[in-house]
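Hi U.,

Before I forget, here's the chain from the pilot set. I'm dumping it here mostly so it's searchable later in email.
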Amino acid sequence: MKLLRQFGVTIASLCAVTAAAVAVPAQAQAQARDDRPSTALLISVQFVDEPEQPSRTALLYCEADGGSHRSAAAACQDLRAVDGDFHALPDAGGICTREYRPVVATAVGFWAGRMTSYREVFGNNCLLLRATGSVFDI
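Structure:
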């Protein structure tokens, strides 16, 4: 019986130590989450049939417009106008060649704190830019 009591005390002590150890990192993670931007997107464009063509990738932050996206302010403005809904981006119109050189446009990340993703295949880069404005102009 004495052995069982000692074992119980040891288990209770281990539980308390483990709970304390878990609570501190959880608080640190919550603090780190609060410091992250609520709008952060990884934007990429890749040519489908051309493996020798490197894919283009950029980070886009839209709270303080920035990241590695070359037209961050314009891209954020385009996305704000549609509340981050890539499918609602207005087609700019204009003329594109009928060249078939497919590209895949992908975006993953967070818009206003909510998870978002987008993937679409376009017949060529001109059609992509016409349909998405400056968002995929990377």
